[in-house]
Amino acid sequence: MRLSLAPRQADGQRAAPGRKVRVTDEPVQRRDQAVAAAEMVALVLDEESPLPETAADVEDLARRLRGHISRLGITVPEETPVLRHAQQLGSAGVPVGYVPSRVYLVQLAKATQELATAADTYGSGGERRRWTPRINVLRGTIFALALACLVLAASVPRA
Q1: How crowded is the C-beta side of 46, counted as CA atoms within 13 Å?
Q2: For residue 121, what pLDDT band results from cuts at 50, 70 and 90?
Q3: Cα dist. 44→12, 75, 107 in Å?
Q4: What is the DSSP-derived secondary structure letter of residue 78?
Q5: Nearest-angstrom CA–CA distance, 63 and 154
Q6: 31-68: pLDDT as tens digits
Q7: What is the dihedral of CA 100, 102, 106, 112, to 10 degrees?
């Protein structure tokens, strides 16, 4: 089981090996860290995903999960038990042996999943995230306000 590390273009397609992806072509769309972590966790915990075949595959998956833990750890307060548990698991090395290494990988994936859930509830400053309206709600509100102003302006008698 080898996961490709090839860069992706803006439409999600893999870039050709000889072609460099230019950063200035489009604004960079940053993926939500919790979503990226959830995809990696699904790769490990999903019933239909294949088991890692070699120790190098286990080490690669563990390295990626540790990376998600470190990136998600920024958005969660330090005193959170979920963060401490995930960091403790991430700092431990991958055990030797087929079964212990796979058990460790599953435990690390579950800890990452719990941390991603905690990161969804906290904002970047360690506080609970405020609700922000979606862009279409804002557009609709502005349109309704502009329409009300137009109706009001049309109903005023001209002097």
Answers
A1: 9
A2: confident
A3: 22, 23, 10
A4: T
A5: 64
A6: 577 777 878 888 888 888 777 888 888 888 888 888 88
A7: 100
pTM for this one?
0.56
The Cα 36–Cα 49 span in angstroms is 17
Given a contact cutoff of 8 angstroms between Cβ atoms, the answer to whether 94 and 59 are in contact is: yes
By the 8 A CB rule, do 61 and 73 touch?
Answer: no
At 56, list the tokens: 């190098």
Cα→Cα distances 48→44, 98, 111, 134, 149, Å = 10, 19, 20, 34, 56
Over the chain, what is the mean pLDDT?
Answer: 77
